[in-house]
Specification:
Blueprint (H helix, E strand, L loop, with lengths): L1 H24 L6 H20 L4 H24 L5 H21 L2
Helix pairs in contact: 1-2, 1-3, 3-4
Length: 107
């Protein structure tokens, strides 16, 4: 269970860092501190997840897919960026692919 909690922390930190990057890129350089902190926590959490024994394909797949989905939703909520049906379908396909990778890793 610890590996899953660490992975959740890594995903949330990565999404926060990426959303902060959007703020920093629009002329608010103070947000680069949040970007750096978010990515540092994200990669540390991902490494700790792997250290707990979660397979790399599963951990990275979930981290990446959840990051894409949550960042797309967050950019819609916080910045009013588009989230079209095609984008939602793409996110669903990514998540289905990650699920298949996870199911395939079960021994």
């Amino acid at each position: 269970m610890t590996a899953w909690l660490l992975l959740v922390v890594a995903v949330v930190a990565e999404v926060a860092g990426t959303l902060s990057l959007r703020l920093a890129a629009t002329g608010r350089p103070v947000w680069y501190t949040a970007v750096g902190a978010g990515y540092l926590v994200a990669f540390t959490g991902l490494a700790a997840t792997l250290g707990q024994g979660m397979p790399l394909g599963v951990a990275y797949g979930i981290w990446a897919a959840a990051g894409v989905a949550l960042t797309a939703i967050g950019s819609r909520v916080f910045f009013g960026e588009p989230l079209t049906r095609v984008m939602v379908l793409g996110i669903a396909l990514i998540m289905a692919g990650v699920l298949l990778v996870e199911l395939g890793s079960v021994r």
